[in-house]
Amino acid sequence: MKGESRLFPPFRLDANNAQLWRGVEEVHLRPKTFDFLRYLVENPGRLLTKAALLDAVWPDVSVSDSMPATSVRELRAALGDNAQTPRFIETVHGRGYRFIAEVKVEPTDGSISAPLPPTFSAPRPQPSFVGRKREWAELCRALADAASGRGRLCLISGEPGIGKTRICAELSALAKAKGLAVLVGHCTEQEAVPYLPFVEILETCVDRAPDQDALRKLLGEEGPELGRLLPKLKRTLPDLPPPLELSPVQARRTLFNCVCDFAARLARAQPTLLIVDDLHWAEDSTLSLLGHLTQRLADLPLLVLGTYRDTESEVTHALVKTLEESIRSRHDSSIRLIELPREEVAQLLKELSGKDAPVSVVNEIYRETAGNPFFVEELFRHLSEENRLYDSHQEFRTDLEISELEVPRSVRLVVGRRLARLDTMTRKILETAATIGKSFPFDLLAAATASEPDPLLDCLDQAQHAALVASSEAEARFEFSHELIRQVMLSGLSAARRQRLHLEVANAIERVYPGAREEHYAELAQHFSQTNDAAKAAGYLHLAAVQALQRSAFTEALELARRGMAILASTADGPERDRQELELQLTLAQSLAPIFSPGFVEVERAYTRAAELGRRIGEEHQLFAALDGLCLYSQVRKDERRALELSEQLLAMAMRRGDPVMVGIAHARQADSLWWLGQPEAARAHGEESLAVPGPEDQFGPTFPRFASAFPALSYSLWLLGFPDRARTVADDAISKARALGNPLALILILTQGWNRFLRDAVRTREQAEAAIAIGSEHGIRSGELTAIGRRGWSLVLEGRANEGLDDIRRALEGREKFGTSDPSVIAMLVEAHLEMKQPAAGLQALEEAFCLVEPTGQRMYEPELYRLKGELLLLQGRSNAAQAEQSFRTAIEIARAQSAKSWELRATTSLARLLAKHHKRKEARAMLAEIYDWFTEGFDTADLKDAKVLLNELTE
């Protein structure tokens, strides 16, 4: 069958076989992308509107209006075309597209040409891309590895203008030609948006989805968590479930896992090149997420490519840490771009001018630019525009001496001179664009400059002709061709002018995106912060901080909250100022807690100030949040008396308001404080009240779930009161519900309570501890992991693995001391280990440390057991200590009775009865043991009651 091929060198389009060739190599395109290209080349030079393209390529399918733009992006990547200086496809803004290359029609016989095997050698470099052979070869190898399923990380560094972005663009074109997907995210200097490059990448993926069903399929199970990053998902998919309510630390790990799972699923569906540009501007959250992703690269068809400036002033501590960690990976490649050598500068000049430059010209330009590609191009343009480069015959001036031409030595001044040749209107437009950012949407620029579309497009066309801006791949968006150009624009502004522009841009964002303002909180905060409107600046800084906190970007949330506080300091006193400060103080405290220890002094200071403000302006809901934060702070710091006082205030406030959520939280907090204080009966009552409140049991308070306070307090209290079976039922029920809820935080908090330790069940304690350790390790819940390690150590000691267990207990204690969370019950595990290992001196030394914590913390719950352990250790030292041991046992019994702690009383009475029996006081021993044993009505299969029963039988014989 005969047909036609259309030639537009170096490409040949074979319509008959639906193939595009570059020489002897086939360029693979998606079917619809090929149809789009065929329609363009069949109509060369003709303006094709979006409507015409949609009718021609998608005649019977309802697709998004953005599909032509998507196809153009794919084609430009496959053809190696450039939107700024197109050779094939020209964008006619607001109207459509035009195929501008010359097309020749050539008849064919319809035969199918066999393509060569896929190869990852580089295609011919596009104009102005020269040199970099070694670096290019390394990137091609990395791309090939990723395409075959061996994930790689490549980091490209160098000074500004050295070509980092350009080499990424070339690799993107190659990747797309080879059938890989390409996703790009940028870090920016201006916008304090946590995870910004990943937000941009996610938005790209979402925008490519043709309809809601395809979008749901694309997001998969990760949709709810990804909604934290991209608020517009909630508007696009109203039925999208909310993310899980988790602790900040656990929510962060869950978000990280979901982003990585999403990226992995995309890569497995289509090998992917993921580029994160300008990492020197990345905030901590972005770097942490990038590090998390790169740990999972090994078996993924994914190449992660990061670029950063390596000048000393721009490499942050967080970036250094990320780089150090990446270097340890065998999947890492670090490429540093350096200045072009003299011969490659000559090649670049040939690409720019179309002719060979004399050696003298090459030497002169090389001397002035030191081989920086951006500087070479800028200097070339400057000399060309000044008519200083060529002679009257349009040949290079062989006697060129740049110094004699008064050429500025600073590239900023070179760019500045080119900017000066623009008309006044265009310069003003670009000043506003530079204030918006490196990339700027057309509609926002129009609103900020109060410009009509046609005159504004004329200005942008002038800027594009001067190679200062370019059309972005995104629809109706432009970007500066280099960040240095934007910086030159900003450096020429006076302080007053810059402030005015920020205000105009901020007001324009509010007008242009009224229904999507939450997607621009960080931008609004940035712009209003540069104006005199302190109230709006503080308000948006708070909203941006809350948004960052919801995304578990703690460092960024903290920084935003602190900036808001600093701005408020300059405003006049009044109710509105107090309200804003109250909100910022709460956000500040909640951001600090996951970064530092929850006991960090600034947390207390922020919650205290928030409580003061809440009382002053009568904001009871916010006051409740502040008092709840102080209550938990006190519990973590083991100041149980203050925690109880605060929990009483919480309960009084909750009852007065009649708010069931508050009531449930307040009862849970009070239960938690009371059982630690050695008041199990009261703790039991409050625990039951908390769990009786309607609503989900894992319901969060302002800072912590009541689930994690009420269940442990109730189960411990029941055990202390002498109801071990009921305590076990409550504990098992808590574990079952935590597992059913799928809430890792709730589950680890329940598992680490280790209440089976009180039953002296070493096997179950170890099993639950190991499960908790796995959860803590996976989700980054360090404090829970440390607690579980201690519980496991205690179990190992009882199971005969004493040294191993002792190491675990010590690790847990050391870790908790760093968090400022040691308490008598934790140290008691060490005491028990020394007792089991028959090390009385070491045990008594640890015991003294535990006793020293009882009075300062108010934690008297464990006090009876500490005295019992003291008695056992004294007996282990020798018979001469019998009297002291007896007194310790009797003290333990006395305190246990005062607490109504029947289980402690039983354990201490058993120890005392055994001692009395050895001293021929069997009758007294039997009487006291029988009395407490007969009180119990359940739990007869537990170790304590079984031991007591055995001893009773011995005393009866």
CATH topology of the domain at 133-336: Rossmann fold
Q: Can you tell me the CATH superfamily of the domain at 133-336?
A: P-loop containing nucleotide triphosphate hydrolases
Q: Which stretches of 5+ consecutive residues score pLDDT under 50?
A: 110-127, 404-408, 698-703
**Strand percentage, roughly?**
5-15%
Count of distinct strands: 16
Percent of residues in helical segments? 55-70%
Give the structural class: alpha/beta
The CATH class of the domain at 133-336, by name, is Alpha Beta
Global morphology: elongated
What's the main sheet like?
5 strands, antiparallel
Overall pLDDT level: 83
Q: Give the CATH architecture of the domain at 133-336.
A: 3-Layer(aba) Sandwich
Strand order of the largest sheet: 4-3-2-1-8
